[in-house]
Amino acid sequence: MGKDRVVLIDTSSWIEALRLSGRHNVRKNVQDLMVDGRAAWCDMVAVELWNGARGSYERQKLFELEKEITCLETSHEVWQTARILAQKCREAGHTVPSTDLVIAACAIVYNAGIEHCDNHIDLILKVHGSGKRRG
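Structure (tokenized):
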């Protein structure tokens, strides 16, 4: 993957990155993407993070991130792709969370890499034929 390619950071990796006790390798990956200006998220990731935010410190961090992070639009094409992914996963015998379908679809539509710690994302990308895509 090119060094200029945007990378959608999934909720799972943001959680690891924002925790002081988060996995070092994930924290470093997210930090490197932010420093390189390649970090992105989508509204679904932002909603999940806001939904889990506890206390003023975490809310302040999210306000700061919203100013710095590229937000990939959840367009009509993203929703269509999420529906197709849901069908493909179901045909393969898997039921995956709708939120993960939308997040994966967003990365696929924008041809973005994806940084994640979520087995559902790996499964969706495998069913799609993308394999495991990281930044």
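The chain has a mean pLDDT of 91. The longest strand covers residues 39-42.
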